[in-house]
Amino acid sequence: MTAPLMVRARAFAREVLASAFSQRVTSVVTFLLVLGATATVLVTAGRNAGAQAAVLAQVDAAGTRSLTVYAQGVQPSFTSAIVPRLAAHDDVIAEVVGFGPVTDVTAAAIPVGTPVGMRTAYGTFSGRPLAPGEPVAGLTQTWATPAALDTLGMPQGRGSVRVTDQGRELLVTDRVTLPEHLEPIEPAVITPGDPATNEPLTSLVVIADRPEDLPLVTDLVTAALTDVPPDGLKIESSQAMADLRAVIGGKLTAQSRSIILGVLAAAAAASLVNVWSLALMRRRDFGRRRALGATRAMIVALMTGQVLVLAAAGATVGAAAGAGFLAASGDPIPTPTYLLALVVAFTTTTTLIAAIPATWAARRDPLSELRVP
């Protein structure tokens, strides 16, 4: 911005602020009007939006985006090689993990202890890539869940386990927590495997990026399993939960939208009346400015600029007050994006509405306005 433009911008800003201070009653009414409208939306629709986000966060858990494939008997074509092929569709698939056959293991130090199922896993497990680690003291590394460690009698989280029907030992080197959608296999010992070994799978779990991606993910998985006989696999999908998510989100969003539009319309109407009152009270002032050379655009900019400053301040304070009320009452607070959108919506609407009386005032004949008592 050039120096002359900066000077003119500063002069205009000072004029806008001076106009706002000179019309204290109208300015306070505009400020409180937008503040009250914004706070009202936050403690009504905003509370709903916060609750909606909390509900959908639960619904959007991996368990509602999952597709599980179970092998019905031995299927030679259902192997770990499918894992990287599906993982390549990372635009719609968040995670793929395949599990090999279950083998019972017990703590090596307690051969007659309670056995726990051990599975070789391929792919990504709870966001953690599965890759075989280097053997430690000649023993293959494996992981165990907290429940498995308690069952095995290894609360310290370290030790070796023995495969009951083979006699070979593995070393438990890490503790891992199962995500909600894998809790049915608890307690479990998980051994990371290399998909390139093309080992047989007994189950495959695919997590879609979003609930709405689940139908496409189902098609991708089905296409990747065309070599397996139809009666050789059982597919379970959380599509019903994804559909429920869409219904819940749609109803809550529609309700919040109705509240916001209603309050916004009421605030716009009240603002229109208030700003038109300002235009009527300042008719003589605007006539004098026009007679002295002020353009119509200048009059419109002066009035809308004044309303813009007051509306922005009122909406910001209203959003802060509403968020504070929700926090104090223990209700969920909407996201910062929601708060910002609300401030922008009320500021923009109030300013645009102000352009109607501002245009009316700018188009009045200056000589007629100067005769106003």
From TrEMBL:
InterPro entries: ABC3_permease_C
Key word Protein biosynthesis present: no
Keywords noted in UniProt: Cell membrane, Membrane, Transmembrane, Transmembrane helix
Transmembrane intervals: 259-279, 299-326, 338-361
Keyword Calcium recorded: no
Name this protein carries in UniProt: FtsX-like permease family protein
Residue span(s) of domain ABC3 transporter permease C-terminal: 259-365
